[in-house]
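Hi all, posting the design record for the shared folder.

TITLE: backbone redesign
STEP: 1 of 1
STRUCTURE INPUT:
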C-alpha cells in the first residue's frame, strides 16, 4: 500500500519547512519516505536535500512566466493544468515506488485549495493509482493574534476541506513563536486550537465601544453560527523545536490514512500533558 499526504495551506504557513523536518524525522526512525515537491515556484537553492519527485523537472514557474508572459498566479494555474495534461509524467515518477509514504509539498496560493478543481482532480488520480491520500492544512500561529484573522484562517481551512473531500487534519504551525504565557491553556489558547465560535461574536460592550457597523454584527453572528453548526475545524499545534510535536503530527496523519493497516490499529500519539 502506498500513502500520500498533501501538505497544504496559505503562503508562508511553514509547509515546506514541515515537509523537510518530517522527512528527516521519518528517515531517522528508519521509515521509507519521499518528499514530493508540487510547488513549481520552489527555489532549488533553498533545498537542503533534493525532493524525490519535483514538478520543476516537468515545468517551472520561472519558465512559464518568462516564456509565456504569465504573472505568478496565472502561471501557477498554468503549471498545474500542464501537470494534469501530463499525468503520464507523474505516473512514471511515482511508478518506481511501491509501499511508500509520500509527503507532498503544495504551493501557497489559497485559491488552489478553496475553489479550483485542480487539486481534487490530482487527488482523484492518486486514488485511482491505489494510493491512500490525506491532507494537512497549515495555518500559522500568527493567525491566533487576532480573532478576526483567526476566523479567516478557520474559514479557509473549512473551504479547503469541503473542496478536497479526503481525510484531513489542521495544523497550527510556528507555535514556537507563541509566547509562553499564551501557551498556558488558561490563557485561552485552547479557544483557538479548538475554535470557540463565541470568540468572534463581539460583546455588547465591544460593539458600543467600536461602534461597529450593525450589518457586520449580523455577518459575524452568521459566521459564528456556521462554525458552531459545522464543528469541522480544530487545530493540532506544531512546534518544530520539539521532536515530540513533529511525531504527534505524523501520528495523526498516519491515523487519518490508517498507515500500517496490517499492524494493530494505532490511536494518534497524544502526549499526556496535553501540551505539544
Ligand atoms: N519560527 C518559525 N518559523 C518557521 C517555522 N516554519 C517555517 N518558518 C519560517 O516561515 C517562512 C516560510 O516557511 P516555508 O516553510 O517556506 O512556508 P511555506 O508554507 O512552504 O511557504 P510557500 O511555499 O511560499 O507557500 C520561512 O522563513 C521559514 O523559516 C516554524 O515552525 N517556526
Ligand atoms: Mg513552500
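Okay, here is what came back for every position:
SEQUENCE:
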Amino acid at each position: 500500500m502506498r500513502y500520500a499526504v498533501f501538505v497544504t495551506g496559505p503562503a508562508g504557513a511553514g509547509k515546506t519547512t514541515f515537509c523537510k523536518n518530517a522527512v528527516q524525522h521519518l528517515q531517522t526512525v528508519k521509515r521509507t519516505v519521499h518528499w514530493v515537491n508540487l510547488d513549481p515556484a520552489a527555489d532549488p537553492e533553498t533545498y537542503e536535500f533534493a525532493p524525490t519527485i519535483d514538478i520543476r523537472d516537468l515545468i517551472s514557474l520561472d519558465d512559464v512566466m518568462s516564456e509565456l508572459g504569465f504573472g505568478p498566479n496565472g502561471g501557477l494555474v498554468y503549471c498545474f493544468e500542464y501537470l494534469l495534461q501530463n499525468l503520464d509524467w507523474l505516473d512514471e515518477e511515482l511508478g518506481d515506488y511501491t509501499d511508500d509514504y509520500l509527503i507532498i509539498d503544495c504551493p501557497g496560493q489559497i485559491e488552489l485549495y478553496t475553489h479550483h478543481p485542480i487539486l481534487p482532480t490530482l487527488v482523484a488520480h492518486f486514488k485511482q493509482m491505489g494510493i491512500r491520500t490525506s491532507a494537512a492544512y497549515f495555518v500559522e500561529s500568527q493567525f491566533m493574534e487576532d480573532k478576526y484573522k483567526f476566523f479567516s484562517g478557520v474559514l479557509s481551512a473549512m473551504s479547503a476541506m469541503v473542496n478536497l473531500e479526503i481525510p484531513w487534519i489542521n495544523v497550527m504551525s510556528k507555535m514556537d513563536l507563541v509566547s509562553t504565557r499564551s501557551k498556558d491553556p488558561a490563557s485561552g489558547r485552547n479557544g483557538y486550537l479548538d475554535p470557540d465560535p463565541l470568540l468572534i461574536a463581539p460583546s455588547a460592550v465591544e460593539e458600543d465601544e467600536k461602534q461597529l457597523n450593525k450589518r457586520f454584527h449580523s455577518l459575524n453572528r452568521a459566521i459564528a453560527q456556521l462554525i458552531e453548526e459545522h464543528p469541522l475545524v480544530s487545530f493540532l499545534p506544531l512546534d518544530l523545536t520539539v521532536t515530540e510535536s513533529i511525531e504527534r503530527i505524523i501520528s495523526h496523519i498516519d491515523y487519518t490514512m490508517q498507515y500500517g493497516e496490517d499492524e494493530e490499529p494505532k490511536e494518534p500519539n497524544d502526549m499526556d500533558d496535553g501540551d505539544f
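COMMENT: The longest strand covers residues 131-140.
Let me know if anyone wants the other runs.
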